[in-house]
Amino acid sequence: MTEAHASTHPSRLRFWALLIVLPSAFAVLLALGTWQVQRLAWKQQLLASIEQRSQMEPAGIGAIEQALAEGRPVEYRTATATGEFFHDGEQHFFATFNGQTGYYVYTPLELADARYLLVNRGFVPYDLKEADTRPESLTPGVQTVTGLVREKLTEKPSFIVPDNDEAKNIYYWKDLDRMAANAGLPEDAVLPFFLDADATPVPGGLPRGGVTVIDLPNNHLQYAITWYGLAAALAGVGLFAWFRRKS
Hints:
This protein is α+β, with helices and mostly antiparallel strands. The protein is 38% helix and 22% strand. The protein has helices at 3-54, 61-69, 176-182, 220-246; strands at 78-85, 91-97, 100-110, 116-125, 142-151, 190-197. The protein has a five-stranded mixed barrel. Helix 1 runs antiparallel to helix 4 (220-246). It is elongated, with a radius of gyration of 28 Å.
């Protein structure tokens, strides 16, 4: 083998290896970009559906239950419920609101049929967690609450979320079943969703309702552009290598 042939042999191997690998990588990048375009269409449809549900006339609890039974989404659906608050069963979800640390107060609302609905009444500052520090918030008698339905979580959203501290009545994720149990509610008498109260003022101003933020990230267009851009760059590299080889 001549010295010239030996020096060009590895170069040919690299060229043909590149020729084999590039189309596969290009196809993968195109597929990822197309997948993100599909996800973008899905996310836009989801956001439009949520916006529509959140702007509808409030539905009664029976209508929400019917929708769930039929498999229709109820997340962020406006709804209204009437009953008496069981203030002794308050549960506290650690949260920040408008830059202030505190808790969302989840209080069981006993309905006329003796079932319970866990209502997120809103935010209280950190030092007002316990109900006896804000007696004016313990509204007596029959109350009507309007707000947004929130569906029950089936598991902790992420491993980085701390475990709930039921002994201290502090929740870091909304485990409806454990909240209900910790409040002493009958297991078979609790509705399988929450209601986030709207910003209607309450006596004493606390808890402060209207804390729900509908903010679903939608970065799929950015991701699609990134993947398609990488595919275009890879195609450019492949063409450059091809024409250089031919020259």
